[in-house]
Design brief:
Number of strands: 30
Distance between the termini: 56 Å
Radius of gyration: 27 Å
Strand order of the largest sheet: 11-16-15-14-12-13
Strand content: 15-25%
Structural class: alpha/beta
Largest sheet: 6 strands, mixed
């Protein structure tokens, strides 16, 4: 630290105010505008004047040129930061983050992050605008594709894992296979009202603290940067939220890294109605704690004047500048501005066979089997023919999903290619498109916004009837029908809110025609859904024999999905977000607070209403089951997923049912037996409920999970350790005024394969003296 401090002290001592402010400026690179808001910037001249601290750069050679210019012709020879959206892989694209979260495999997620960091640094990128750790409950919001789902504990574990994947467990960023991680979007972005991107957020301080847990986990793991959300948080835009960014983030949490705006967020303070012009917006954002102004260029234009006016002090500018220079020091750029960019390295590390194998593993592990009636899957390679039908079956571009800005979509493996390779010579694969992804040309244009030169959503000149008839002819030629439906890549992601989260209605007539035909012909109908968000699949779930769901799977998606469908890989994915029955259930939160009118509590079952799901009334008057047209319960609960074998979960057992103090530990064990005929992987989950507290607590909260591979006929033990810190919660008056503690009393401990099938035991956890309780080895089980 002394060497760093001395170096930066000397450097800053020779810098002008304009140069210091320049280090806080991050304009776009010409030709690299992915959002449509960037203007033209004369980068070379701006670099020569010391007005730029970082930028994107369109490619490796571009970044080499700009860096060479900065360290040779910049006034203080300070190297540039290069930041790009490396969201789910870089060149070798893996499933979208929500898909990866469905693997519940932290080791796998860590390996994909390391691969992305290695490829990105080899292309000159040293900062990634990732991971997105927003908790989301509303599948209408397109950016759920970029997050890790709805479970706070899972999201926190993945945030920690991704930071360590990008930066290393030792946080040594001065290596050619490391990039600086940026946690985003702070805070509350995933709670945007009605799932509309950029919309306002209204949430209690306690709720905000719950969903900020992944940010805190990422900061504890050493994340070097944090990106602020676009939205208002309880009437104050996050970009100008001093309590959020200074009082909580800096002072209470001790974060000392870069605080970066989202693109154009400073200038957007004018639109938010709290600033009259860019100068005022600049003051508000800087005073709140922003260190890096992306795209707006308010800092470089107005901070010097604000210093002259006395509204901003030189000490404040020096503190922000030092943070940027410290980031560059940590990244090793002062010692080697071209670290990782050496000649030929990019060609050696990007898109290697090893990387593609990892992408294939990740895509297969992210697939979730939602239904498998009559063992319709796995598919058999016993001769004959399989019909593969649907607009996503031969679709290359949409396999990669949203925000894969550096990827070459022509390298993606289609499902048709994966099928033909997997089937081998003994099995024929017959293909028909069957329908369009969408029929509306206006919607098609919106979905092709980032790939207009190579559109994935192409409206076929043939009529609907002709396309369906061709599909039926192909179906008649095969013994099994596989139909692949879903979303284009830009159906999800930023600025992609959907009003209806069913499979796009242009695809419904094809599905219904195939369902009618296979039912009459006695054939199996297998539905493969590829999408970027949870979809409401109630219609399809009633008619398909099997449903395999894949979030946009990435470069090896076609191979990976075929691996699962043909049984070469057991489907081990489990949902990280619940799937609703219909859009009227949204937002859908599994870890919700109890209400005074729970479904199983007060209320009445309406006479003459005999609709039931699993024997329970769908509608109960005067309870929270108040949706008149359908169930309030999800179609597929969080944590759900099937495999090709059957697991029997025993009752949870503990060595004691009374505990005392903060140092006591509760060991919970559940024995799981594979009662099927195939090896498989199950993810045992542990949830906790505090049923009586001084404030209302969630009906359940995930606190642990264990993935277990079990051979047929074998058993394994899932063991969880619970500590008092797992029982803590926050009581908050404001965002920065809060108390974090746990309360003694009874706790319900629940284990199982998903939240719809949990078994429980109860324990008492005291803060006081030690009571009598069973000794070690005496297992206690409550059913």
């Amino acid at each position: 630290m002394t060497a760093e401090r001395d170096f930066i002290d000397a450097l800053m001592g020779a810098m002008t105010l304009q140069e210091k402010v320049g280090q806080l400026n991050y304009p776009p690179s010409e030709g690299f505008d992915t959002t449509g808001v960037a203007g033209t910037v004369d980068l070379p001249e701006r670099i020569r004047r010391g007005e730029i601290g970082g930028t994107a750069g369109a490619n490796l050679e571009d970044r080499r040129t700009l860096q060479r210019l900065a360290v040779s012709e910049g006034p203080s020879k300070i190297p540039l930061l290069f930041g790009v959206d490396v969201i789910h892989g870089h060149k070798t694209v893996v499933p979208v983050p929500l898909g990866l979260a469905c693997s519940w495999d932290l080791d796998l997620i860590e390996r994909t992050g390391r691969m992305a960091a290695t490829e990105a640094r080899a292309e000159g990128i040293n900062v990634t605008w990732s991971p997105m750790v927003d908790i989301g409950y509303d599948a209408r919001w397109g950016r759920v594709a970029e997050g890790s789902g709805e479970l706070v504990h899972l999201g926190a574990e993945i945030a920690r894992t991704m930071v360590q994947a990008y930066q290393g467990t030792d946080n040594d960023l001065a290596r050619p296979d490391r990039v600086m991680a940026t946690l985003k979007h702070f805070a509350g972005y995933g709670l945007s009202m009605a799932g509309r991107d950029y919309n306002s957020v209204e949430a209690s301080p306690a709720t905000l603290h719950r969903i900020m847990a992944p940010f805190k986990a990422g900061i504890e793991a050493g994340a070097g940067a944090l990106m602020v959300a676009f939205n208002t948080v309880n009437d104050i835009p996050a970009t100008a939220h001093k309590e959020l960014l200074q009082d909580l983030l800096r002072e209470d949490w001790g974060f000392d890294g870069l605080v970066v705006t989202d693109f154009t967020a400073v200038m957007e303070l004018i639109n938010h109605g709290i600033a009259s012009d860019l100068e005022e917006a600049t003051y508000l954002a800087f005073a709140a704690g922003i260190t890096t102004d992306l795209v707006s260029e308010g800092f470089v234009r107005h901070l010097p004047d604000l210093v002259t006016q006395g509204r901003v002090s030189m000490e404040e500018v020096d503190t922000a500048c030092r943070r940027v220079l410290s980031a560059k020091w940590a990244l090793g750029l002062f010692e080697d501005p071209f670290l990782g960019m050496d000649e030929g390295r990019y060609e050696r590390v990007a898109l290697s066979a090893q990387n593609r194998a990892l992408a294939r593993e990740a895509a297969a592990s992210s697939c979730v089997l939602l239904k498998n009636e009559g063992q319709a899957l796995p598919l058999q390679r016993d001769g004959g023919a399989i019909a593969l039908i649907g607009p996503l079956a031969e679709n290359r571009v949409d396999m990669q999903g949203t925000w894969a800005v550096a990827a070459d979509p022509m390298l993606n493996v289609t499902l048709l290619e994966g099928f033909r390779e997997s089937a081998g010579a003994q099995l024929d694969i017959h293909f028909a498109k069957g329908c369009n992804i969408v029929d509306d040309p206006n919607l098609a244009a919106r979905l092709n916004v980032h790939n207009r030169d190579n559109p994935s959503v192409v409206i076929d000149p043939r009529g609907k009837e002709a396309m369906i008839e061709e599909a039926l002819q192909v179906a008649r030629s095969a013994s099994v029908v596989v139909v692949c439906l879903g979303e284009a890549k830009e159906h999800a992601g930023e600025s992609s809110t959907r009003e209806d989260i069913t499979i796009p209605m242009a695809q419904r007539p094809l599905f219904d025609a195939l369902a009618d035909y296979t039912l009459s012909a006695g054939k199996k109908l297998i539905l493969v859904v590829i999408a970027g968000r949870p979809l409401a699949l109630a219609h399809e779930a009633e008619r398909a024999d099997a449903i395999l769901f894949s979030f946009h799977p990435g470069i090896e998606g076609g191979h990976a999905i075929a691996d699962v469908l043909f049984g070469d890989v057991d489907p081990s994915g489990r949902l990280a977000m619940a799937f609703p029955r219909h859009g009227g259930q949204l937002p859908l939160q599994s870890e919700h607070l109890p209400t005074g009118r729970p479904i199983g509590g007060a209320g009445i079952t309406v006479e003459g209403d005999d609709e039931r799901i699993d024997g329970e009334p769908v509608f109960r008057k005067f309870t929270t089951a108040t949706i008149l047209e359908g169930s309030s319960e999800p179609l597929f609960p969080v944590g759900f997923g099937l495999g090709y074998t059957i697991f029997d979960y025993g009752d949870p057992m503990a060595e004691k049912n009374e505990l005392v103090g903060e140092k006591d530990v509760l060991e919970v064990m559940v024995i799981i037996t594979n009662t099927g005929t195939r090896a498989g992987v199950t993810t045992a989950q542990l949830y906790v409920r505090d049923p009586v507290a001084t404030v209302s607590r969630p009906v359940l909260e995930l606190k642990g999970f264990v993935r277990l591979a079990i051979e047929p006929g074998g058993s394994a033990s899932a063991v969880f350790s619970l500590r008092s810190e797992d029982l803590t919660f926050i009581k908050a008056r404001t965002i920065s005024q809060y108390e974090e503690d746990w309360e003694e009393g009874a706790f319900e401990i629940m284990t199982g394969p998903h939240v719809g099938t949990l078994k429980s035991l109860s324990v008492q956890w005291h803060k006081g003296s030690q009571p009598d309780h069973p000794g070690p080895g005496d297992l206690v089980a409550n059913r």
